User: Fold Class I SAM-dependent methyltransferase from Streptomyces flavidovirens.
Amino acid sequence: MADAALRLTTLAEELLGTPLPVRIRAWDGSESGPADAPVLVVRSRRALRRLLWKPGELGLARAWVAGEIDIEGDLYEALDRIAGLLWDRGAETKSAIHPVRDPRVRAAARGLLALAGPWPPPRPPAEEVRRRTGPLHTKRRDKEAISHHYDVGNDFYALVLGPSMVYSCAYFDDSAEGLTLEEAQHAKLELISRKLALREGTRLLDVGCGWGSMAMHAAREYGARVTGVTLSAEQAAYARKRIADEGLTDRVEIRVQDYRDVRDGPYDAISSIGMAEHVGSVQYREYADDLFALLKPGGRLLNHQIARRPEPNEEAYHVDEFIDAYVFPDGELAPVGRTVGTLEEAGFEVRDVESIREHYALTLRQWVANLETNWPEAVRATSRGRARVWQLYMAASALSFEHNKIGVNQVLAVRPGEGGASGMPLRARTWNPTAR
Assistant:
């Protein structure tokens, strides 16, 4: 088909009612659009069929994961331009694929259908989660969701995360030379340790312990006695080996266990770092109640959690389709105010909330750089489709943090002791770690 790019650009702009912000290169080699813009490479008409049958993020994601579309040029700039259509015009974009009244829009949609071909779209890529049934956040369903996200290969995560194996927001500084990713992750673990007032013999529960980095830091640097729980068997095996290699087995225990099944409290402190996003709104009060019950009076909780912006109509809020299908099945983000309110309803006294949104954008950009630098090894460690999922997910998430679409907060809460005593110093914010 001659000059498919021009036809595609013209029809898409008629359908969307706005100029395309990227240049298009179509499957026939033709190009159309702004000469100085990043290039959206449409390798196959299958990509169009995916978009027409599933408008919005999920159709784009399926085409990306399958390798049917790609980006030439700055990935972040291209995603930023495309995201404007989804963030600012999402409802219009989706409804435009099913036009009712405007004859020009109907004609453009028919033209795109003709350009895409008469066949239905291909099956979703193998990396997409199969449709789930049954109640949300049962122990079995949560374990399956965690396995999908984390049991994709420790070697893959090592390439992306670097030696720290910390899969949560790092903590940078404003120094002229800046911190490396490893230094910033160490600073984050140190920040949490100080907020929890860890010391020799402190009994710490690390909920969602990942590959054991927080548990090891608390035991090695502070002499804490740590229990880490995760639902990922691969994470647990990796963490246990690291702990053994550092000679910390007498201080750190790693369990494959749901936090709802932990019964050996009370603990002096609890860290929950990047785990509560998996809990879900229907389960969050039980999560808060369980952690409250596991703490001794005067014990501290550090809840490190991604948050979304509040919606004008919270009842109409929908989980991100791409992330639900490819990254965090059943994961949910809540506004930080709701998180704080639920913790207080469970009996906690919230003592400090620190937003570190910009830090996560910096972290994600470094993870993307690690992935792209180690691309052949990353593909061998998992699959090409899975590597493309993580590349898209992390780059788009970096932009979301930069644009304040989402944030991340450390909430420090206390289980009040006798007479309401908190055990907190009068001037608590003395915990910021040294730069190195």
About this structure: The first helix runs from residue 4 to 16. The domain at 139-420 is CATH 3.40.50.150 (Rossmann fold). The radius of gyration is 24 Å.
